[in-house]
Amino acid sequence: MNLAFIPSPSTGVIELGPIPLRGYAFCIIIGVFVAVWFGNKRWVARGGKAGTVADVAVWAVPFGLVGGRLYHVITDYQLYFSDGEDWVDAFKIWEGGLGIWGAIAFGAVGAWIACRRRGIPLPAWADALAPGIAIAQAIGRWGNWFNQELYGKPTDLPWALEISEGPNRVAGTYHPTFLYESLWCIGVALLVIWADRRFRLGHGRAFALYVAAYCAGRGWIEYMRVDEAHHVLGLRLNVWTAIIVFVLAVVYIVISARIRPGREEIVEPDRDAAPAKGSDEDGSDEDGSDEDGSDDDGAAKADADEQDAGPKKDPLTKDEPGKGATAESAGAAEKS
User: Among 44, 64, 171, 246, fewest CB within 10 Å belongs to which?
Assistant: First the structure.
């Protein structure tokens, strides 16, 4: 008899009047907000603008949700398209079923689109968000607790998870793999934060470290799960995915460190910066000189000096034009 265990909630839905608050969706939403908040702090610390992380997340999050659901439905198609199953359930995302691999891949596509629109490098944005994503996963895994899903093998350990009788599950106590992964993700976030400060990771290497560290944990945690899954050469499909992605992440870290060492100096260009002092957008200078080298103030001053000096002398008579005319008239008068 197991005297100590982690109880599961009797229901995954809390009714707030006419509005059903689903535990799984609530955990996902809280995780997204935490990731954006923490990612914004890191982005600003790197020299970016406040709000940029949220602006990019507006694209990345919807893409990630679609990708995560697609990966789940494709890899577990038998849950929705087998005999006796209703394919409409494939759209019921609130009932659980998001593949992190598809979520990250499609989320990266959405983030890439948003980063190009803002003129910022995607790797730098991903580095800033990496530990926040790990924390979001740690929070999101508690949605599996609300749904009583994705638990491990039977166990009588003091921290065993109690599962009640229900569709596709047998009552008993099992390894709380959701808790294992949640704690692992928190450790991954701390690792990335430490390594980023210690080695000043840049050009996507902090994000790659998050990916590699997460895959290392997901491999052994996935191996403990007992839910139905496809197998390849005796291993669950997600274990193979974790191995392949882990290798790719490590290779990226090594190659990137050799090609582009260090960290980005500028992560977000200042589009609102004022023009350089002394020049306008049309090329004219504040001191009055244009691109052709002419000086408006100097020309105006020369005209003013010329007017103040009075009429010029006639170069032939050496006299002023007015005086020469008067003397000529006087001489004509004498002759007459």
Answer: 171
Reported as a single tens digit per residue, the pLDDT across 201-219 is 999 999 999 999 999 999 9
C-alpha angle 99/104/105, rounded to 5°? 100
Q: Evaluate if pTM is beyond 0.85.
A: no
**How many other C-beta atoms are found inside a 10 Å radius of the C-beta of residue 272?**
6
* Residue 291 to residue 285: CA distance in whole angstroms: 8
- Asked if residue 169 has pLDDT above 80, the reply is yes
Q: What are the distances in angstroms from CA 29 to CA 16, 52, 62, 202?
A: 17, 19, 12, 28
CA 216 – CA 97 distance, rounded (Å): 21
| pLDDT tens, position by position, 80-105 | 887 878 788 888 777 777 888 999 99
Q: Would you say 175 and 153 are in contact if contact means Cβ atoms under 8 Å apart?
A: yes
Closest CA to 159 of 175, 181, 182, 145: 175
Q: Facing residues of 20 across strands?
A: 15
Query: Which phi and psi (to 5°) does residue 268 adopt?
Result: -145, 115
- The partner residues of 21 in beta bridges, in order of sequence, read 14
